[in-house]
Design goal:
Number of helices of chain B: 10
CATH superfamily of chain B: MetI-like
CATH topology of chain B: MetI-like fold
Structural class of chain B: mainly alpha
Helix content of chain A: 25-40%
Order of helices and strands of chain A: EEEHEHEHHHEHEHEEHH
Helix content of chain B: over 70%
CATH architecture of chain B: Orthogonal Bundle
Strand content of chain B: under 5%
Number of domains of chain A: 2
Largest sheet of chain A: 6 strands, mixed
Largest interface: A-B, 22 and 22 residues
Oligomer: heterodimer
Radius of gyration of chain B: 22 Å
CATH architecture of the largest domain in chain A: 3-Layer(aba) Sandwich
Shape of chain A: globular
CATH superfamily of the largest domain in chain A: P-loop containing nucleotide triphosphate hydrolases
Number of helices of chain A: 9
CATH class of chain B: Mainly Alpha
Distance between the termini of chain B: 33 Å
Structural class of chain A: alpha/beta
Radius of gyration of chain A: 18 Å
Number of strands of chain B: 0
Order of helices and strands of chain B: HHHHHHHHHH
Chain lengths: 252, 246
């Protein structure tokens, strides 16, 4: 399978001297669901921001498969926080990327409404962010990322601040959207369980210096649902991944 | 209300002469009898204050946008704004009145100097306080500088601007009155401050109080109007407007 984006020997040193990444290598394959798993402060969010082009690496190269994906143009990003504009409605928040791309208002609003409905928020078009619950805000945030029909969706611990029940529900819905739209997903998390539930492949990272220690495949078939969460296969994967994570942390 | 009744009772009980302290009833009576002159003066003062406020909004927001667009511009010009702010208006008002031939225009400039700084400083802060992740999001979608200003920075600055506007509203009125005091009775534009000076010279103390009451009332109404405007702009989304029952 070909790579959508390749990171080679990526290092990132911040102005204050902190070394977030040192010689990290990562390939993101087309249409896969990849998780970046690691302890807090291992630079996984930094790596995601570098891939998104929100920051420049201090050393190393990030190469996009231009021909295949149109480079960074087909990219969307979901932040840790919902990051909505509080002064406007859910619909206008979702329509923002289209508005910035000068899509006509009527078209952008109908597309935004359709995506809002697909994340289960039909009827909340006119609601303001502060009238929505934490989970609903995150759904709006995901809808905004999906409205441009991205080729690559980068997610930076999007569900970390949510309660477990809401997180499970959003995990299920995210997988459904992924199977329907078949974008390439890169998902940053510090939860072993979440990464095993969602992904086909898990890149386990070490802390200080941050680099990708091992890559593990999760072979369980899709669709994955509540049964998968309690299956022996899921348990086995969790055990393997936990062991890999502990090994990576022991190196630090 | 209790205060007014107490005041009236005091004035009557102790037989205080109206040229020392007139009671509210006497003041109200003067308001009615001298309404013609007072209303004319009131309008002159208010029109100067409102024009100064409008100019403060235009220049304050305009400069703030320029400042947020370029750190270089901000570093070069912000000190001058601070100098204007810290210089006592009574000290420079005579100069301005001498420099500018037109009395009304010079009063307007004085009121503007007093009123514009809160708007400038608040709006500058607001424009720079947009959510960092939202700024990144706009970068990700390749927003132009104009789009970032209109769709992100200006809405984010709105609550700050409105807070500044509330302060500037009262200041513009104070600026207009103070400048007129400095201009003295020589001016042809005879606003409420002129009436106060004039009444003082003529020992028409109730009229002086009536003019003072008009100024205070106008200030209160201006503040309430700006608070209402702020409420209407922010009620759907800003934390300051969130009520308990929501």
């Amino acid at each position: 399978m070909r790579s959508v984006v390749s990171c080679r020997n990526i290092s990132k040193r911040f102005a204050n001297g902190t070394v977030a990444l040192d010689g990290a290598n990562l390939d993101v394959r087309e249409n896969e669901f990849l998780s970046l798993l690691g302890p807090s402060g291992c630079g996984k969010s930094t790596l995601l921001r570098l891939i998104a082009g929100l920051a420049e690496p201090s050393a190393g190269t990030i190469t996009w498969d231009q021909a295949k994906e149109g480079g960074r143009a087909g990219l969307s990003f979901v932040f840790q926080e919902p990051t909505l504009m509080p002064w406007t409605t859910a619909l206008a928040n979702v329509a923002l990327p289209l508005k910035l791309a000068h899509v006509a208002r009527s078209e952008s609003e109908s597309r935004a409404a359709a995506v809002l409905a697909s994340v289960g928020l039909a009827g909340f078009e006119k609601a303001y962010p502060r009238e929505l619950s934490g989970g609903m805000k995150m759904r709006v945030s995901i809808a905004r990322a999906l409205v441009t029909a991205p080729k690559v969706l980068l997610m930076d611990e999007p569900f970390a601040a949510l309660d477990e029940i809401t997180r499970f529900k959003l995990n299920n819905d995210l997988l459904e959207l992924w199977q329907r739209d078949r974008f390439t997903a890169v998902f940053v998390t510090h939860s072993v369980f979440e990464s095993v539930f969602l992904s086909q492949r898990i890149a386990v990272m070490t802390a200080r210096p941050g680099r990708v220690q091992t890559e593990l495949a999760v072979t369980a078939p899709y669709p994955r649902d509540a049964h998968y969460r309690t299956s022996p296969l899921y348990n086995e994967h969790c055990r393997t991944v936990s062991a890999a994570l502990e090994g990576a942390m022991a190196l630090a | 209300m209790l205060l007014l009744v107490g005041w009236e009772a005091m004035v009557r009980a102790f037989g205080i002469a109206p040229y020392l302290l007139p009671g509210p009833v006497a003041i109200a009576r003067t308001l009615v009898t001298d309404w013609q002159t007072l209303a004319e003066s009131w309008w002159i003062t208010m029109s100067i204050a409102l024009a100064a406020l409008a100019a403060a909004v235009v220049v304050g927001v305009g400069l703030a946008v320029l400042f947020s667009a370029s750190k270089w511009v901000e570093r070069s010009f912000y000190p001058y704004a601070v100098i204007l702010q810290v210089t006592p208006i009574v000290a420079i008002a005579p100069l301005i009145i001498v420099w500018v031939n037109d009395t009304r225009l010079s009063l307007l400039i004085c009121a503007w100097i007093v009123a514009f700084f809160p708007i400038l400083s608040n709006t500058t802060l607001g424009l720079n306080s947009a959510d960092r992740n939202l700024v990144d999001l706009f970068k990700l979608y390749r927003a132009s500088g104009w789009q970032r200003l209109v769709h992100l920075k200006l809405p984010a600055a709105m609550p700050y601007f409105l807070a500044g506007l509330k302060i500037s509203g009262g200041l513009s009125l104070i600026g207009a009155v103070v400048a007129e005091f400095v201009a003295g009775t020589g001016g042809e534009a005879s606003g409420l401050a002129y009436r106060i000076l004039e009444s003082g010279y003529q020992l028409k103390i109730p009229r002086m109080f009536a003019a003072l009451a008009l100024i205070s009332l106008s200030g209160i109404v201006l503040f309430l109007a700006l608070s209402l405007l702020s409420h209407l702009c922010l009620r759907r989304w800003h934390e300051s407007e969130v009520r308990e029952e929501d």
